[in-house]
Amino acid sequence: MNPMTAPDRDPRVPPDHADSDAAIGRQASAWWVRLRADDFTQADADALRAWCARSPEHARAWREQQQLWQALAPALARTAAAAPQRANVLAFPLRPGRRAFLGGALAAGVAALALRPPLGAWPSLQELGADYRTGTGEQRQVALSQQMTVQMNTQTRVNVIAQETIELLGGEAEILASGARQPVTVVAGAGRLLAQSARFNVRHTDEAVCVTCLAGAVDVLWQQRQLTLDAGQQLVYDGRGVQAATAAPAGEASAWRTGALSFVGKPLSQVVDEINRYRPGRVLLRNPELGRRLVRMRFSISQMDGALAMIRDLTGAEMTSLPGGIVLLG
C-alpha cells in the first residue's frame, strides 16, 4: 500500500504531537510530493480530500503548501530559463502537467484558476471584464454621475449595471450618493445597498460583505429583510445570513483614504492578509501560532516593506525574501 493513500498521520511523530501544526505541515509537504508522482491515482486524490477535510488546520496547511509553490513557480521558471543546464534541478516545483492543477481542482476544477488565479498571479477573467478595476496598491476615483462617486481601493473591481446602479465584484470602495432623486444602488455579494444622500464604505474581499455608513443613512437589503444603517454603524452579511448592526470602530473603515492602516488587538494573520492587498508579490505566514498573535500596529500604505520589518522586530519572526516579491514569515 502506498504510504500516502491511507495514513493521515506522520508515523515519525509521536501520537501526542501528531496533530500539532508542525506535524500537519510536514504531512502537507508529503502530500505535495505524492501529488506530483507519476503513479498518483484517483484513490490518492480521494485520500487527499479526506485528509484536507480532517480539520481547519489540515485544510489551511494544504492551502499554504499550494500557495508557497505557486508563488515560487514564476521566480523558479525565470531562474531555469536563465540557467538551462540546471533545469533538471528545478523541474520538481515547475512541472505543470495534470497533477500540478489537480491540487486546485480539489475545490473547483481547472476552470477556477481562470476565475480566481492563485495568489493573484494574473488578472482573472472576471477582473479583466470589469468596467473599472484597480491593481495592487492602486486607488482610483470614478464619478459615474452627478449623484454617484466611487472611490476604489486596491484590488477592486466594479461593473456598471444601469444608471446609478453598480456591482462591487470584489475589493473595497467608498460610495458618495449626493441627493439623488432615486436611490443609488450597490450590489455586493448576496445583498443590495440603497442610499439617496450618504457616504458609505463597502468591503467585499471574501465571501462576506462589510458595510459601514460614514454619513447619512444606507438601506441594506438581504433576501426579504431590510435594515437601515445610520452614520457610525456597520454590519456584515454573506450568503448564509446578515448580522445585526453594530457601532463601527472609529476611523477604521475609512483609514485607507488617509494613506495609513491601523490595527489594534488584531491577529497577525489579519495584518498579513491586509498587507497582501497593497503589496506586489505575496507574504506567506508559515507559523499558524504566530498568526494568532494579537498586535498593535500602524503603518503607511506606501511603506509595506517597512511594515514587514516592523513585524519582524515586534515578533522576532524569521523573514526570508525570495524573488518575485515573495516573503516567508515564520
Description:
With 330 residues, the chain is an alpha+beta fold. The protein has ten helices and 17 strands. It has helices spanning 21-35, 42-52, 56-82, 87-94, 97-105, 111-115, 125-128, 268-278, 288-291, 304-315, and strands spanning 132-133, 140-143, 148-152, 157-162, 165-178, 184-188, 191-195, 197-204, 209-222, 225-230, 233-237, 246-247, 260-267, 282-285, 294-300, 319-322, 326-329. It has a five-stranded mixed barrel. A hairpin with a 2-residue loop joins strand 4 and strand 5 (165-178). Helix 1 (21-35) crosses helix 3 (56-82). The two termini are 35 Å apart.
Short summary of the structure?
The chain has 330 residues and is of the alpha+beta class. Helices cover 32% and strands 31% of the residues.
Task: Name a few traits of the molecule.
5-stranded mixed β-barrel, single chain, 17 strands, 330 residues, disordered N terminus, 3-stranded mixed beta sheet, alpha+beta
| Helix amount | 25-40%
The spatial strand order of the largest sheet comes to: 5-6-7-9-8
Distance between the termini: 35 Å
Tell me the total number of β-strands: 17
How much is the radius of gyration in Å? 22 Å
Tell me what portion of residues adopts beta-strand conformation.
25-35%
What is the averaged pLDDT score?
A: 78
Q: If helices are DSSP runs of H or I spanning 4 or more residues, what is the number of helices?
A: 10
Structural class: alpha+beta
Main sheet makeup: 5 strands, mixed, barrel
Low-confidence stretches: 1-17, 83-115
Instruction: Note the overall shape.
Output: globular
SSE arrangement, N to C: HHHHHHHEEEEEEEEEEEEEHEHEHEE
